[in-house]
Design goal:
InterPro entries: CAP/MinC_C, MinC, MinC_C_sf, Septum_form_inhib_MinC_C
Organism: Methylobacterium jeotgali
Structural class: alpha/beta
CATH topology of the largest domain: Pectate Lyase C-like
Strand content: 25-35%
Shape: globular
Subunit structure: Interacts with MinD and FtsZ.
Protein name: Probable septum site-determining protein MinC
Number of domains: 2
Helix content: 10-25%
Function: Cell division inhibitor that blocks the formation of polar Z ring septums. Rapidly oscillates between the poles of the cell to destabilize FtsZ filaments that have formed before they mature into polar Z rings. Prevents FtsZ polymerization.
Low-confidence stretches: 102-106, 108-119
Number of strands: 14
Order of helices and strands: EHEHEEEEEEEEEEEE
CATH class of the largest domain: Mainly Beta
Mean pLDDT: 80
CATH architecture of the largest domain: 3 Solenoid
Number of helices: 2
Length: 230
C-alpha cells in the first residue's frame, strides 16, 4: 500500500543581511570597498548582501557587471533593490522591496592618509550587550563587551575582542592586520570567529569547547581554541 506523501513544509527564517549602496563614480566606490576588505578581510565572509542600486540606476549590463565585480571579491549578492531592479529578469539576483532598515554599520575611513606617527591603540568598551542585527566595527584597538553578543550580531576589532558574557554571534579580531590579536569569551557559542583574515564558522568549530570560557588565537596560521584557565 502506498504511503501518503508528507505535506510540503514552509518555514520562515530570519538572517541579517548587509546592504551595499554603491555611488558614482563606481571606480572610486570599488576602491573604497577594496580598502575595507584589506583592513577587515573577513568582513563579508558568509554574509548575505543586498545590493541597493538606487544611486547608480544601471541598465541590465551594468548590473551584471557590478554583481560580477562583487562576486570576484567574494561578496555574495542575494538580492537587488532600487528603481528598475525588478525589470532585469532572470540571470540576476531577485529584486526585493519593503525590508526593514537596520542601523548603519560604521567602518573606518579607507582613503589613504599621509604618513604620521603611530597613535596609541584606543579600546572600545560597550556597557550593553550587542543585540541581533547590530554590528560594531572598531579598527583602532580592542573591543570589550561587558554583556553578550547575540546570534545575528557582529563585533569587528582591529585588536582583540573580549566578551564577558556569551558569544553567540560573529567575532572578528585583528581586522587591521594584527595576527597577535585574540578572542576571549565566557561562553563560547559563536556563528563565526576570525583573526587576521583566518576564520572558522560554527560548522567547523570543535563542539567540545561549546559553552565554555575560551580564548581563540592564531598558532602557525591556524585558529586554536583553548580554555581560559588552560
Amino acid at each position: 500500500m502506498t504511503q501518503p506523501r508528507p505535506p510540503i513544509r514552509v518555514r520562515g527564517r530570519s538572517f541579517m543581511a548587509t546592504v551595499l549602496a554603491p555611488t558614482p563614480p563606481l571606480e572610486d566606490w570599488l576602491a573604497d570597498l577594496d580598502g575595507l576588505s584589506r583592513r577587515a578581510p573577513a568582513f563579508f565572509a558568509g554574509r548575505p548582501v543586498l545590493l541597493d542600486l538606487s544611486a547608480l540606476r544601471p541598465d541590465r549590463a551594468g548590473a551584471e557587471a557590478l554583481v560580477a565585480e562583487l562576486h570576484g571579491r567574494g561578496i555574495t549578492v542575494v538580492a537587488l533593490e532600487g528603481e528598475g531592479a525588478e525589470g532585469f529578469g532572470a540571470g540576476l539576483p531577485p529584486a526585493l522591496s519593503g525590508g526593514r532598515p537596520g542601523a548603519e554599520i560604521e567602518t573606518a575611513e579607507t582613503t589613504p592618509e599621509p604618513p604620521r606617527a603611530a597613535a596609541p591603540a584606543r579600546s572600545l568598551v560597550l556597557d550593553q550587550p550587542v543585540r541581533s542585527g547590530q554590528a560594531v566595527v572598531h579598527l583602532d584597538g580592542d573591543v570589550t563587551v561587558l554583556g553578550s553578543v547575540a546570534s545575528g550580531a557582529e563585533v569587528v576589532a582591529g585588536g582583540s575582542v573580549h566578551v564577558y558574557g556569551a558569544l553567540r554571534g560573529r567575532a572578528v579580531a585583528g581586522a587591521a592586520g594584527d595576527p597577535l590579536a585574540r578572542i576571549f569569551c565566557r561562553r563560547f557559542e559563536p556563528e563565526l570567529v576570525a583573526i587576521d583574515g583566518l576564520y572558522r564558522t560554527a560548522d567547523d568549530l570543535d563542539g567540545t569547547r561549546r559553552g565554555q570560557a575560551v580564548q581563540v588565537r592564531l598558532v602557525d596560521d591556524a585558529l586554536r581554541i583553548a580554555p581560559l584557565d588552560g
